[in-house]
Design goal:
The protein is an alpha/beta fold. It is built from 14 helices and 13 strands.
Length: about 325
């Protein structure tokens, strides 16, 4: 018996659309990562998250969750809805509910929350506190996890200070030592200087000093002096005739021609590795003083390292700009 093609057309359409209904991280491979972001007054976090979700689609990484380390009323909603806009469902989100004292007026979060697809989160309180969030993800992971920090370090400091509990009998420091492979940090200026993520408030200074001193795994830092050389995102105005949500966030921030790539560069490097991403390492130890200023003491056996670019800044700009566009 033959079936008219007109009757089969709806079935073909359904088969074509069906994969789009599946979560993008189904059977995801790649190294497990947690993304820690302030999602605050700068917009490069949005570009960094787009690059991270692209890396997950390409199976370079497996995103376990996102931690927000500075709080405003639109924090969790805007993060989830931007992820949904990018095609990523069911992202786990944790928040440092204590971090309500960062000054400034976040410029794009309400836009993302109102324009992005609606999800399960309606308010910050729908998420769990950052300490239980981190402890659960690390305790449950069968593999060692990379943490990508593009914001303040207060949530990670609280993790280090946490005690054994019903999630794990290990202290935070012990849990990090056993379950974290590496920490990637956008923060500081190298070999010395002051930078926002370390020095913005008393909270950020205390956290930066604590993490740089006591974090038990290797840390790779990308500093202010590197990201300021690369500006990206301006060409997104040609994506969807200027309606691309990441581009609209840039416009809301006042960066329609692009934004310096501190967070995107750190994120892309964490996904690919320092050498593959085009960087050289200087090993040693980062120390942060009571003003939030950092110094770096170079020595070959140091647990810390900061990076410098092996390529011209224009090459990094072209590569990252291209990856911001949807394939």
């Amino acid at each position: 018996m033959s079936i008219p093609m007109k009757q089969l057309a709806p079935l073909f359409a359904l088969l074509i659309l069906l994969p789009l209904a599946l979560p993008l991280n189904t059977n995801a491979k790649g190294k497990p990562v947690i993304f820690d972001t302030d999602w605050w007054t700068d917009v490069d976090d949005v570009l960094a998250l787009r690059l991270l979700l692209r890396a997950e689609r390409e199976k370079q990484v497996k995103l376990l969750g996102i931690c927000i380390d500075a709080v405003n009323p639109w924090s969790a909603i805007s993060v989830e809805r931007f992820c949904l806009y990018e095609g990523r469902r069911n992202v786990r989100i944790g928040i440092d509910f204590q971090a309500t004292d960062y000054n400034g007026k976040p410029p794009y979060q309400q836009l993302l929350a109102t324009e992005g697809p609606r999800g399960r989160i309606e308010r910050n309180e729908d998420c769990e506190d950052c300490v239980s969030f981190y402890r659960k993800l690390l305790a449950q992971s069968k593999e060692k996890v990379d943490i990508i920090s593009v914001g303040y370090l207060n949530a990670l400091s609280r993790l280090l200070n946490s005690r054994g509990d019903g999630i794990s009998p290990l202290t935070g420091r012990e849990l990090v030592r056993r379950k974290v492979r590496k920490l990637w940090v956008m923060g500081g200026t190298y070999p010395e200087g002051r930078e926002n993520n370390f020095c913005r408030t008393e909270r950020s200074i205390k956290a930066a000093r604590h993490v740089c001193r006591d974090w038990p795994t290797k840390i790779t830092f990308l500093g202010y002096e590197t990201g300021i050389q690369v500006k990206i995102g301006g060409s997104l105005k040609y994506e969807q005739n200027g309606k691309d949500l990441a581009y609209r966030a840039l416009v809301a921030h006042g960066s329609s021609k692009g934004r310096y790539a501190w967070d995107p560069m750190l994120t892309e490097m964490a996904c690919r590795g320092e050498k593959k991403a085009g960087y050289e390492l200087t090993r040693g130890t980062t120390e942060v003083d009571e003003r939030g200023a950092n110094t770096f003491k170079a020595h070959r056996k140091g647990r810390h390292a900061y990076v410098t670019m092996k390529q011209k800044a224009e090459e990094f700009c072209q590569q990252l700009e291209q990856r911001l566009h949807r394939p």
